[in-house]
Design goal:
This protein is mainly α. Helix content is 79%, strand content 0%.
């Protein structure tokens, strides 16, 4: 009886392949959360250097500059769940190997850089394939519901994983956390193999360069798309350097160590969960304006650490920010599906992902050495300022300020730009 009520309330749950995807999106993010906490503290325990942490995390992001686009082509050619399987297995092997090296005391810095680069290849392959998979198993009228529920499952898993990972790292060390990540990701393979989504349509005789060119033409033809991506290239560069790279160092020095950082990660996931629930019913009236403003508000992340707010206040602000970020991510995913032809969706998503993260390695490489020279707080203040400036410049676009959602315009499910 409960199951029937659930299916009536959320019809997308009646789709077998979506239920399998939902199970995968509970297991995989929970496993990856162990890596997010474990890697940073493994480097800090080994070398104590924020500069070394920058190099390792930059190595994790750098492969996206090449492999995201290649993955976009593959995910448009082949069943996207197979691309995700390959990505998950690669991450599982690299994280598991690094975890064992750390546990046995044999890890050195170059091991971490090489293995995290392999992890980065897997992460780069995952995103375009993930974007392409959902519309192949869910009808258009259920896309927002499917995106919201899918993201909700991921964020619940991330919250639980981050909280437990922080305790594991504090109790037995970061190596075991990375080993758990590897085992968990291998567990997703049977779920993904059971999904029946097929390959996309491909024009005969086209090579990879031609397919990339077609994806680029589609990407640049939408002003709302490339403008938001350009803004987030700056936002994510500053956020990654000021918050993700330097955050563990602040937590270790001032907030109590890995358990505190795990709580901050869990607080972000809690906000994302609340935002996912709101996304089932709420759509911003001016989504482009909404996303630009959220990009500016994300400056709270490095700012809260720079100002040395109490841990409870940092966690509270992180929850609120997570709510707003999740609403915009759900709307953005739905907008891509509604506006981009399905046979080009993975390639356009690849350009979206690449443009957004293209400057993140620079943020990672600069943040650690700069913090060593001018201090943690000064570097984080600078990161927050860049994020606000990027939002201010993007607001100069009239289209960004005035674009309305299809629901606000009374157009139902007709294509309309949405948030990033």
């Amino acid at each position: 009886m409960f199951g029937l009520d659930l299916y009536r309330r959320f019809p997308v749950l009646a789709i077998r392949d979506f239920r399998l995807l939902l199970a995968d999106r509970l297991l995989a993010p929970g496993a990856v959360a162990f890596s997010l906490v474990g890697v940073s503290f493994a480097v800090l325990d080994l070398t104590g250097s924020t500069a070394d942490l920058s190099y390792v995390l930059a190595a994790q992001i750098a492969p996206s500059l090449i492999f995201t686009l290649i993955s976009g082509v593959f995910a448009d050619r082949f069943p996207p769940q197979r691309v995700i399987i390959a990505a998950n297995v690669l991450i599982a092997v690299s994280e598991g190997a690094l975890g064992l090296l750390v546990v046995t005391g044999h890890a050195v810095l170059w091991h971490m850089i090489v293995l995290e680069a392999l992890t980065g290849i897997g992460m780069a392959a995952f995103w375009p394939a993930s974007q392409a998979l959902l519309p192949r198993i869910v009808p258009d009228d259920l896309l927002q519901e499917a995106n919201a529920l899918s993201r909700l499952a991921m964020n619940i898993a991330q919250m639980g994983g981050a909280a437990v990972a922080g305790l594991v790292v504090a109790a037995v060390g970061p190596g075991w956390a990375m080993t758990v990540c590897g085992v968990g990701l291998l567990g997703t393979v049977p779920l993904l193999l059971a999904i029946r989504a097929g390959a996309g349509e491909r024009v005969p005789g086209t090579g990879m360069i031609r397919e990339l060119r077609d994806g680029w033409s589609e990407f640049v033809s939408h002003t709302w798309l490339w403008a938001i991506v350009a803004q987030f290239a700056v936002v994510l560069m500053a956020w990654y350097g000021g918050f993700q790279v330097l955050g563990p160092a602040v937590a270790k020095a001032h907030l109590g160590g890995p358990a505190a950082w795990g709580l901050i990660m869990a607080a972000e996931a809690a906000g994302l969960i609340l935002g996912g629930l709101l996304s089932l019913w709420f759509t911003p009236r001016r989504p482009m304006l909404f996303v630009v403003c959220i990009g500016g508000i994300m400056a709270l992340s490095p700012l809260s650490l720079a100002m040395r707010w109490p841990l409870v206040v940092i966690c509270g602000s992180t929850v609120i920010l997570g709510v707003m970020m999740e609403i915009m991510v759900v709307q953005w995913s739905v907008a891509l599906v509604r506006n981009i032809p399905q046979q080009k969706l993975a390639r356009v998503s690849a350009y979206d992902a690449l443009g957004s993260v293209v400057a993140m390695p620079l943020g990672a490489l600069v943040a650690g050495p700069l913090a060593g020279r001018i201090g943690l707080s000064a570097t984080q203040y600078g990161a927050a300022g860049l994020m606000v400036l990027a939002a201010a410049f993007t607001l100069l676009s009239r289209e960004v300020r005035t674009m309305r959602s299809p629901e606000a315009a009374g157009e139902g499910l007709t294509p309309a730009p949405a948030v990033k």
